[in-house]
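Box 3.1 A note on notation
Throughout this textbook, protein chains are presented in two layers. The first layer is the amino acid sequence; the second is a token string describing backbone geometry. Keep the layers aligned when reading.
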Amino acid sequence: MDSQATEQARAQLEAMRDRLTNSIRVIDRDLAESIRSRGELSHLPTHNADHDAEGVDAEIALEQNEETLLEAVTAALARIREGSYGECENCHQPIAEERLEVIPYAALCVECERKHEQQNGGRR
């Protein structure tokens, strides 16, 4: 991967990192407000089962997804600093530039990713 492509990836990853960090901050704030406001609806104590569990669960799932993505983006920025960006962490072969254009935080080439998903049931 040439230096211009790496610099473009760095800029894209830094923008993603900033967006994800802000998104996580907003979700955290909304979750805290949501939990606080539910407890203030009446003078009676509330039980967790009384809360809008689906809405809170969805926010928590979204936050976990954003945090996982942020970890991948942060790791990709570290690979750029280390000089190993664009190299598959498993087989050490180059990751296709087309893949990195679509998934700039990709740590595995397509073949290794496919094998990893088969072995782990699609989980990363």
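The two ends are 25 Å apart (CA to CA). The mean pLDDT is 87.
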